Amino acid sequence: MFPEYDVIVVGAGHAGCEAAAMAAKMGSKVMLATMNMQTIAQMSCNPAMGGVAKGQIVREIDALGGYSGIVTDHTMIQFRMLNRSKGAAMWSPRAQSDRMQFARLWRNKLEAMPNVDFWQEMVTGIVVKDGRAVGVHTGLGITIPSKSVVLTNGTFLNGLIHIGEKQLGGGRAGERASKGITAQLHDLGFKSGRMKTGTPPRIDGRSLDWSKMDLQPGDEDLGKFSFTDTPPLKDQLPCHIAYTSPEVHETLKKGFDRSPMFNGRIRGQGPRYCPSIEDKIDRFSDRDRHQLFVEPEGRDTCEIYVNGFSSSLPEEVQYEALRKVQGFENMKMFRPGYAIEYDYFPPTQLSANMETKLVDNLFFAGQINGTTGYEEAACQGLMAGINAHLKINEKDPFVLTRSEAYIGVLIDDLINKGTDEPYRMFTSRAEYRILLRQDNADIRLTHLAKKIGVQDMDQRLANVEVKVEKTNELLKHFKNTSVEPATVNTMLQEKGTSQINQKVKLNALLLRPQVALDDFRPLIPELDQYLDDYNTEQIEQATITLKYEGYIRKEQDMVDKMNRLENIKLKPETDYSTFDSLSAEAREKLNSIKPRTLGQASRISGVSPSDISVLMVHMGR
């Protein structure tokens, strides 16, 4: 019935879609298996992409040839660049999306790929032969053969939904859980755990009094995610901000005795940085109110997402409490919030290419690895799809380092440190975040995608080369342009920075944090005219490069030093239990993870600097 596929992707969420798309773009014949064709690329929780650090990930996905950025640009209803008041390394794009259009366009993209086939059915097991994944079994008893398998099961593995004292089997509201895979993986020797996430109630926007809430509009200077020529956003929709109150909190507390989080029915660990409303009230009991972001789900629906009110309390408690929020007095609820528990597999069981150590050609991506968030899932899927294709074609794995991408930081953290709570990316996790900015993701990564064989990258690479060329031209012009004191001193005084008493080069003034290039344009007509030949992206790239030149150089020096350790290879067959000078924990962790390099070994939780010194002595270093 089925031919042998190169790659079978199990699950069609954000990880599965990127995995299928990337493997297909590289030339593999792909089968995308999902329990429901109508929920491909479903935004199961908040209708938004990007955010702090997450926005950088989406831009990296785009620079590597993925589709998350393109789909977001085509379907967003609001755009904001977060952290503009901070340095450029912290700038993070975020878009409010039209949830239905987002999923529809993703499906259209996949259906337009001749290398992608679809099958709607539950996958209940993996076909393993001689230690290698060679296909999948389905609930109907069908076996579909393949050369590799990528599992992107999301929250569906033995998923259990909690609403108050009620428990429902399911991977998402209205959808059944996936059975069979966890038990088989246990039999193969894998270790698993349980995690928990949640989602807030969905509300009828027609029943809200928007005049009682604070308006949160999008940016006036609109940005986007994709480095391709995606259309500009038009007719932004606003979000709103509401607040809880002591009265809301007291109402919620009435249901705490029936909360599955407090009475022990939920065993899985929840996300630290996205707690439920009951968890926030319990942990931050000194706070009188908590912020709620009231977000539209799309242009053509009245459905509203109440960001910040995730809950698993009984539905009547959620309803009563929400009606005491200002603007929600006459609120009508579409569905209550709920918590969901699901199986995950500690990611220390993976190699750096997302392949499992126990079964060859079996790859894990997304929440099965203990992460949370669309963006974290999508980038793992992208890397798994790429590496599944490379593995079956006997090519070297594609691994991004911590100094090359946030994606590299995420995967390195997962495989070396593991996680016992839902992992979320933050800028603080990246030690080289000045290098890993959202504005230069294409410069960092597009040439790598072209090198490994991702299709349709020629024009993208040409655009990058033009961007670099134009940036260098601008930097040269700034360094050669002299500025007279009489021209700029009034502006400098107004900006709160010292005046100049002789001619100086423009680049020296641009180093000052108080001023920006736009401050000089009305004062120097020839500069304003010169800049007309450059687009916004090129000008921004040049000014950021100039302002952070010293910091970038220092960070690059740190990278070069760390790369010396990355270049020292470790043998995968090494038995570290024979190294008596290593700590007991180091011997255990090194034997479990089998690091590829000394640099990777240095980042394993429990391996100390003295343990690294022992390894260096052993290697004659």
In percent, how much strand structure appears in the residues? 15-25%
Percent of residues in helices comes to 25-40%
Structural class: alpha+beta
Give the neighbour order of strands across the main sheet: 15-16-17-18-14-19
Could you tell me the number of beta strands? Answer: 23
**Mean pLDDT over the residues:** 94
Query: Please, what is the oligomeric state?
Result: single chain
* Biggest sheet architecture: 6 strands, antiparallel
- Gyration radius, in Å: 26 Å
Distinct helical segment count = 21
Question: Can you tell me the overall shape?
Answer: globular
Distance linking N and C termini: 57 Å
Write the layout of secondary structure elements.
Blueprint: E1 7-10, H1 14-25, E2 30-34, E3 48-50, H2 54-63, H3 68-75, E4 76-82, E5 92-97, H4 99-111, E6 116-120, E7 123-129, E8 132-138, E9 143-145, E10 149-151, E11 160-163, E12 166-169, H5 181-187, E13 193-199, E14 202-204, E15 214-216, E16 239-243, H6 246-253, H7 277-283, E17 291-296, E18 303-307, H8 315-322, E19 333-335, E20 338-344, E21 362-364, H9 374-392, H10 406-417, H11 441-452, H12 458-480, E22 482-483, H13 485-494, E23 504-505, H14 506-510, H15 517-520, H16 525-531, H17 536-547, H18 549-566, H19 584-593, H20 598-602, H21 609-618
Parallel strand pairs: 1-2, 1-10, 2-6, 10-21
Antiparallel strand pairs: 3-5, 4-5, 7-8, 8-9, 11-12, 11-20, 13-20, 14-18, 14-19, 15-16, 16-17, 17-18, 22-23
Helix pairs in contact: 1-9, 2-9, 2-11, 3-4, 6-8, 11-12, 12-17
